[in-house]
Write a structure and sequence with these properties.
This protein has 12 helices and 8 strands. It has 343 residues and is mainly α. The protein folds into 3 domains: 8-192, no CATH class; 198-267, no CATH class; 276-342, no CATH class. Strands 3-4-5 form a 3-stranded antiparallel β-sheet. Strands 6-7-8 form a 3-stranded antiparallel β-sheet, with no helix packed on it. The chain has a two-stranded antiparallel ribbon with strand order 1-2. Strand 7 and strand 8 (299-300) form a beta hairpin. Helix 2 (41-62) packs antiparallel against helix 5 (122-135) and helix 6 crosses helix 8 (177-199). The longest helix is centred in the middle third of the chain and has 23 residues, at 177-199. The radius of gyration is 27 Å and the shape is flat.
Amino acid sequence: MATLDLDADKLQENALTSIRLGIEDFQRSQVALDQGGDPARALSAVRNLFAGVLLLFKYKIAISVDEPSDASSLIFNPPEVLPHSDGNGGVEWKPSGNFKRTTIDVATIQKRFKGFNIDVDWKIINKLQDCRNHLEHLHPANTLGEVAGFVAELFPVLRDFVQIQLNKQPAELLGAAWPTMLESHNFYVKISAECAAAWANADIPEQMQPWLYACRCEECGSSLLSPHPEDLEEGYGVDRQDDIFRYQCMACSHVDLIAPLMIDALNDAYDYDPRDGGEPGVEDCYECGRSTFIIQEQECSWCHATLDYSQCKVCEEPLNQDDQMNGGLCGYHLHVYEKMRDD
């Protein structure tokens, strides 16, 4: 079973090239069209940056062993293992063919890291992978704001990996790409903090606050949303005037209502597929009318409405909003009670 040749130094070179191209794409995507910018480069920025990080991960795996043949077997996908008769009524499992020319994917990289005790924040990596996959399905214009968040979240992962796992200084290894990433990260963190501080004065319903931070600008995809200053000056509150309270995107200046974004984010988190036997997780609240009543918790995340009767007095069957007019009885025992009363 032959392995393919692997040049670890070439892996690192390709990784650095992808990261450099990703940063160049990022810079071009953030510049206005009339100044030579290209919004379509936002998607290629995410592709190149994520690919560059994965190549650096593979480079780390390759240099974790001494023999080039061992490095190759760790990076290239192995041949399929198929069953064969051993001639005596038993089974032998043998590889079919040689190592493939394709290299390992994210899931296999994670397994290799675990096997070689290489630490990385996989929650962030998986989140960035989801972001990359999400952006693949959007028009380039809708990625402009979101790509800035991608770069900001990638920064600490890449910094720690280069310093701890490769024992190198990011500024030296990544060259001109590093100051751009640092500047973008610092700017993003600063504006995010300012937005969070401003929302603290906007009277967001307490249980809806997690969904506020899941909101993205409908125009550019950025998470850098701030309460509209005019609405704050008027003394409006999201909990009371959700039909007029607006957000302002700090990335593209788009203005729109914030409440629908929060409610959509909550519903997306409880999304279900009835074809898989799933059940709705959210329904309209009978008290406030918003699609924010969490069925499992039997409470509205917006107005905090709860059930007066949570279970049937007779059979202890769980009750829902539709049963609240039954006086603490489920539909069946209400029918039984009414029938006995009529008799």
